[in-house]
Amino acid sequence: MKKLSARRRHPLAALVVLLFALAATGGLYTAFAPAGEAKADKGSSQSLAIEEGKKLYDVGCSSCHGTGGQGTSDGPSLVGVGAASVDFQVGTGRMPLQQQGAQAPKKKQVYDQDEINQLAAYVASLGSGPSQPTKKQYDPNGSDVAKGGELFRTNCAQCHNFTGEGGALTHGKFAPDLGDVSEKHIYEAMQTGPQNMPSFPDTVMPEKDKRDIVAYVKTVNSDKSESPGGFKLGGFGPVSEGMFAWIFGLGSMVAVAVWVAARTAKARKS
């Protein structure tokens, strides 16, 4: 006890205790502070994205969709549509809308990707909805193209035709050509169901099936893709191809038969 008391009265005892306290504090900070700072930085950047997105929204979107995204007579509510819907609509240039019509056509985009992400963050803050997919979700590498073809013909060919070349619908609407649509936007369209298209959430169509469909669409519309049956005839499938063969093939045969009969009759008269 006398030795311990003597050490406590030592001139360097206070310095040793101070150094020990600083070391312990530094260790605790190293162990716990980075995770907390990362969360704070992420939350701060997300808040900043929402704030900037609201500024963009107020200027370019609020006149149709309302100041709080509640919708107006000129545009639907955006509450609950999610970030994926914003990324698709704005990323393909469909929004902001150029003019009212039966359907918003694809055009050159107005905002860059950073601004689109900010708009998406703000709209997502209005209500939960499908989030923007990661590259892993829509990357077609390694997908089953044959299975994607089956799924596409079952769920999509009625409007987009057998190879995704699009087609007319009712009242001036149409299913767009999918040949030049990016993998991400094809995936987002299935997630969100833009305009006349039904949505296919993961509960209806699993992520893998959507990725297989993306792989099929990009394969049949690639520059290296060749139609094994000859001309694609607009991608309408075997019905149009059979009708083409029936009308033009049979028509040609009838024309040849008429020509032969006329020549034979003329030869007999001679």
What does it look like?
- A hairpin with a 5-residue loop joins strand 1 (167-168) and strand 2.
- By secondary structure, this protein is mostly helical.
- It folds into 2 domains: 38-129, Cytochrome Bc1 Complex, Chain D, domain 2 (Orthogonal Bundle), CATH 1.10.760.10; 133-236, Cytochrome c-like domain (Cytochrome Bc1 Complex, Chain D, domain 2).
- It has helices spanning 2-8, 13-60, 62-65, 82-91, 113-126, 135-138, 145-155, 157-160, 183-192, 207-220, 238-269, and strands spanning 167-168, 174-175.
- The longest helix is centred in the N-terminal third of the chain and has 48 residues, at 13-60.
- Strands 1-2 form a two-stranded antiparallel sheet.
- 27% of the residues are buried.
Overview in brief:
With 270 residues, the protein is mainly α. It has helices at residues 2-8, 13-60, 62-65, 82-91, 113-126, 135-138, 145-155, 157-160, 183-192, 207-220, 238-269, and strands spanning 167-168, 174-175.
CATH architecture of the largest domain: Orthogonal Bundle
- Helix proportion range: 55-70%
* Overall geometry: elongated
Order of helices and strands: HHHHHHHHEEHHH
The total strand number stands at 2
Biggest sheet, strands in spatial order? 1-2
CATH topology of the largest domain: Cytochrome Bc1 Complex, Chain D, domain 2
Largest sheet: 2 strands, antiparallel
The rounded Rg comes to: 32 Å
Low-confidence stretches are: none
What's the mean pLDDT score? 84
User: What is the tally of helical segments?
Assistant: 11
Assign the structural class, choosing from mainly alpha, mainly beta, alpha/beta, alpha+beta, or little secondary structure. mainly alpha
